[in-house]
Write a structure and sequence with these properties.
Shape: globular
CATH architecture: 3-Layer(aba) Sandwich
Oligomer: single chain
CATH class: Alpha Beta
Distance between the termini: 24 Å
Radius of gyration: 14 Å
Largest sheet: 6 strands, mixed
Strand content: 25-35%
Number of domains: 1
Order of helices and strands: HEEEEHEEHEEE
Number of strands: 9
Number of helices: 3
Protein name: Protein NO VEIN C-terminal domain-containing protein
Length: 134
């Protein structure tokens, strides 16, 4: 189910998403540890982006951090170092809601807990650690 949801979100970001400052590009086959490139249209710089899609709706800030899971060690490492950002997409309503979450949440008290995968846990409100794009 998660793969299908992420495929829907990926197609949306690559083909339909429109924002004044940001766009998304596919990664190359040799790129590892992330899903897409987040492109700053003004500067042309690219950031690695880890796609985390959800078929629910965004209703409050705490929704951003619910079921936010890293399934691979490399994903966790890149996010902790700030080499990637999380692109959180809610596809439960139209238009889709898109957020960028940075590793600033880790310095605000959130922590990655090791289970069979890495689950982001912490308080429900992390101001200044995300940007709403749509």
């Amino acid at each position: 189910m998660t793969r299908k949801i992420e495929d829907i979100a990926r197609l949306y970001l690559l083909n339909e998403f429109s924002h004044d400052t940001y766009s998304f590009e596919n990664k190359q086959p040799e790129d590892r540890g992330f899903d897409l490139w987040l492109v700053d249209k003004e500067s042309g710089t690219k950031r690695k982006a880890e796609l985390k899609a959800h078929n629910g709706t965004y209703q409050r800030r705490s929704n951003l951090f619910e079921r936010l899971i890293f399934n691979a060690e490399i994903e966790r490492e890149l996010f902790e170092r700030g080499d990637t950002v999380i692109v959180r997409v809610f596809i439960g309503t139209q238009p889709y809601r898109v957020f960028i979450i940075t590793n600033a949440i880790l310095s605000s008290g959130a922590a990655l807990e090791a289970e069979a995968r890495y689950v982001l846990r912490g308080q429900i409100n992390y101001d200044k650690s995300f940007i709403e794009l749509a």
